[in-house]
């Protein structure tokens, strides 16, 4: 998914003019990321198993699940999101092309965008401006009033793109991620909040009583909401509200300082919650999803500069990071002068939801060897990724090593154990609540199959 090591955030090996202690600090940073990734993945897997078990005990269906039909949309949606972010972060190239056709457009771009761009960009615009003047002097009489209209149109477009630059997109992404993190962190803190409230004095009786709420979004073609269509729902209780208030200081500190410690706390919460909440319905769906995102990761990392640009410019807690020069930090409350080793959350979540599926499969067979083998494969793949990145001094797509190992080793263990058929055909589709459209499709398919069987029987009789 994301690269383990991106752009200027990491120097893979210490330079000759840097202190020798940098190498030891880099190894410590890699170990810290390694430990955080394994810990969040394991907690998320056991949490996923507990959630499914809770639904089975309550005889309740899962709201959503990733089926084999859905695996195609994940790489496509991820690619679209990645390209949109790349356009936002590379908007200066578009502005340069807008400015090169008009005199005033070039002047506008130089004056407006100078605080946001480096000297090379400004020099390039000045050069383009001079080229434009030389060209327009020979055809100025022919252009007439069209010149002013084109100039103003390009200047307006440039000002619009300037509003959506990386300097405005970064805080927006940070706020969106932090708002999502409030829900995730309150959900993880809910058991501790519940124990704390239950041991509170009796004078807090009203606060100890738990009340459940549900927010439902429906649509209807009539004002009276006859035959409304349910678009979605979200339920929560008082313990979730209490947990949100407990997590607010962490979110506020991150929005204020954007510190790497609060970034990791939010990133771990997002990883654990995502692995527990994203349910994969079958082994085939898990393999298809992993392979699709494997191709997505390798293509955008090795084929283009898109992944590198987005990962090096994004400023949201969607990755784990740890200082490579921890002992040389002068101000522990600031990120100034820190070189980070980073690991994208996608490299934890994507293998994690597949390993969680193997854990549930092993529990259904009363065998955990597949889960243990998958955890070993993930640990080995992450180690290989870090080693290759450190040796070749370049960022690596972690899924390039994680997906083949996490899929191949448990499959090999199942083949040796004689459970390969049960693993391939393992399905939890009966635990998922299907939409009416899916039920209608299934009924239509069953009716079509029944008609086909009747036709075959009639042909045989004839």
Concise structural overview:
It is found in: Endoplasmic reticulum membrane. The chain has helices spanning 21-57, 73-89, 91-99, 103-113, 119-143, 146-163, 166-198, 205-208, 238-257, 260-277, 283-303, 306-313, 346-364, 369-392, 399-417, 420-424, 436-461; strands spanning 212-219, 229-237, 319-323, 340-344. The chain has 462 residues and is mostly helical.
Give the strand line-up of the largest sheet: 1-2
Rg over C-alpha atoms, rounded to the nearest angstrom:
28 Å
Helix count from the secondary structure assignment:
17
The unreliable regions are: 1-21, 139-145, 437-452
- Tally the beta strands: 4
Protein name: Intramembrane protease 2
Membrane topology: Multi-pass membrane protein
Keywords: Endoplasmic reticulum, Hydrolase, Membrane, Protease, Transmembrane, Transmembrane helix
Pfam families: Peptidase_A22B
If you had to describe this structure to a student in words, what would you say it looks like?
With 462 residues, the protein is mainly alpha-helical. It has two domains: 7-66 and 168-430, no CATH class; 89-164, no CATH class. 68% of the residues lie in helices and 6% in strands. It is built from 17 helices and four strands. The protein has helices at 21-57, 73-89, 91-99, 103-113, 119-143, 146-163, 166-198, 205-208, 238-257, 260-277, 283-303, 306-313, 346-364, 369-392, 399-417, 420-424, 436-461; strands spanning 212-219, 229-237, 319-323, 340-344. The strands form two sheets. A two-stranded antiparallel ribbon has the order 1-2. The chain has a two-stranded antiparallel ribbon with strand order 3-4. Helix 1 crosses helix 13 (346-364) and helix 7 (166-198) packs antiparallel against helix 9 (238-257). The longest helix has 37 residues, at 21-57. The radius of gyration is 28 Å and the shape is globular. The N and C termini lie far apart (59 Å). Mean pLDDT is 76; it is low at 1-21, 139-145 and 437-452. InterPro entries: Peptidase_A22B_SPP (IPR007369), Preselin/SPP (IPR006639). Belongs to the peptidase A22B family. It comes from Trichinella pseudospiralis. Keywords: Endoplasmic reticulum, Hydrolase, Membrane, Protease, Transmembrane, Transmembrane helix. It holds the Pfam family Peptidase_A22B.
């Amino acid at each position: 998914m994301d690269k383990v090591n991106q752009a200027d955030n990491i120097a893979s090996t210490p330079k000759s003019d840097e202190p020798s202690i940098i190498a030891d600090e880099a190894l410590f940073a890699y170990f810290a990321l390694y430990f955080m990734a394994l810990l969040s993945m394991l907690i998320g897997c056991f949490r996923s198993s507990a959630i499914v078990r809770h639904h089975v005990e309550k005889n309740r269906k899962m709201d959503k699940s990733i089926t084999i039909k859905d695996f195609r949309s994940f790489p496509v949606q991820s690619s679209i999101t990645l390209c949109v972010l790349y356009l936002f972060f590379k908007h200066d190239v578009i502005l340069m092309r807008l400015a090169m056709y008009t005199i005033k457009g070039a002047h506008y771009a130089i004056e407006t965008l100078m605080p946001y761009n480096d000297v090379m960009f400004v020099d390039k615009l000045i050069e383009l401006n001079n080229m434009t003047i030389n060209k327009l002097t020979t055809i100025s009489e022919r252009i007439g009033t069209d010149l002013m209209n084109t100039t103003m149109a390009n200047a307006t477009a440039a000002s619009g793109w300037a509003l959506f630059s990386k300097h405005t997109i970064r805080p927006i992404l940070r706020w969106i991620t932090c708002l999502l993190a409030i829900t995730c962190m309150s959900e993880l803190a809910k058991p501790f909040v519940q124990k704390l409230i239950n041991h509170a004095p009796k004078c807090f009786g009203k606060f100890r009583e738990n009340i459940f709420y549900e927010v439902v979004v429906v649509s209807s073609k009539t004002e009276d909401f006859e035959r409304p269509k349910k678009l979605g729902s979200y339920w929560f209780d008082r313990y979730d509200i209490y947990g949100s208030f407990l997590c607010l200081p962490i979110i506020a500190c991150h929005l204020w300082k954007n510190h790497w410690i609060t970034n990791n706390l939010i990133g771990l919460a997002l990883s654990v919650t995502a692995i527990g909440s994203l349910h994969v319905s079958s082994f085939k769906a898990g393999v298809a999803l992993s392979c699709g995102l494997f191709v997505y990761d390798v293509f955008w990392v090795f084929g283009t500069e898109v992944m590198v640009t987005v990962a090096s410019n994004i400023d949201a807690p969607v990755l784990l990071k740890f200082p490579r020069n921890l002992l040389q930090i002068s101000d522990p409350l600031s990120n100034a002068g820190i070189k980070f080793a980073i690991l994208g959350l996608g490299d934890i979540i994507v293998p994690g939801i597949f390993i969680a599926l193997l854990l549930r499969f092993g529990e259904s067979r009363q065998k955990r060897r597949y889960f243990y083998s998958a955890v070993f494969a993930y640990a080995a793949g992450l180690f290989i990724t870090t080693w290759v990145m450190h040796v070749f001094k370049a960022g690596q797509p972690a899924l390039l090593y994680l997906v083949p190992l996490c899929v191949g080793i448990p499959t090999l263990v199942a083949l040796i154990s004689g459970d390969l058929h049960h693993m391939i055909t393992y399905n939890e589709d009966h635990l998922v609540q299907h939409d009416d459209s899916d039920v209608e499709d299934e009924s239509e398919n069953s009716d079509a199959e029944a008609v086909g069987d009747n036709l075959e029987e009639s042909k045989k009789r004839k």
